[in-house]
Amino acid sequence: MSTTLENEEKVAELMHRIQMHVMPRRVRCLEFFSDFDHVRHGRCSEVNFARALGTMGLNFSEDETRLLAEHFTQFGPNVIRPAVVNYRQFCSEVDQIFSDEDAQENMKSMTLSSSPGFTVMSTFQPNNIEDEERFLHVLHRVAALCKSRGVAIKPIYVDYDRSSAPSPSMLNTRRGGKVTKEQFVRGFPFKKEMSEADIELICEKYATPAGDVHFMALHNDVAEVLPDPAQPFPTSPLYLRPDCTEWSRNETPVVARIQAKVVEKRVRLKDTFQDFDPLRKGFCTPGQLKAAFTILNLSREIDRNDFENL
């Protein structure tokens, strides 16, 4: 009797996990079983039942899948093996979440968040495994391959959580740093260099309670094992030598330089200054003097100090 109650509690927990998975993604479970039921009698085999769960993106162990299949196994004179699992009843119980508004609101508060940083890296801790030395060896191999081939773990998996809207193609929250196990294995860049057991060990180390793989934790651990600092590059700093040259132009009086430019350009100074001296007194203001030099194109030859001296 106690074993039966424990199984019922486990089945209820598994069904809750399935509803947590299908509700935000609006997944209709019945569509995943249609390929395994050509005569449409509402039943499939235990193997096909497990395949359909995997296609839906659910990562259940063999014992959990077997427990669900046994719970929905149908008995009767019309039931012919191996198609004994009543998947229609399973889909009907899962789809009850779409008609229960209160349950939907509770699950939304648990699964969805308006903040893009809902799943924070600090909340995830890698699992403890038995063969820790072997895992460290595998991690060093991954880090060495990443460094030698210029591969980064994070950009490989960011496309799986790009959209902010729940959909069947996005099986995890946005920027959560997690992917499904199938997505992780499919995108792993070193499948030829590493065995399936090593990849399975990595998945076991970074597995989340929901069965996903936290690739951001792997990315951070690889960066810590073998940091990749910026490569040095040749530089050519500019060193200016002190210039002690003294030009003779600085020793020439400003009046002599103006005389040289007047002779060079054949400029008549008197005609320009008469426009600023209507009474012909031979005097003008400093501003009028500067304006006259500008008109004659001589202002570039006189700096501020020369103008003050003049």
Short description:
This protein is an all-alpha fold. The protein is 47% helix and 3% strand. It has helices at residues 2-25, 46-55, 62-71, 87-94, 101-111, 132-149, 154-157, 181-187, 196-205, 215-225, 254-265, 269-274, 286-295, 304-309; strands spanning 43-44, 85-86, 178-179, 213-214.
What does this structure look like?
This protein has 310 residues and is mainly alpha-helical. The protein has 14 helices and four strands. It has a two-stranded antiparallel sheet. The chain has a two-stranded antiparallel sheet with strand order 3-4. The model is unreliable at 111-122 (pLDDT under 50).
Describe the sheet with the most strands: 2 strands, antiparallel
Order of helices and strands: HEHHEHHHHEHHEHHHHH
Q: What average pLDDT do the residues reach? A: 80
Rg: 41 Å
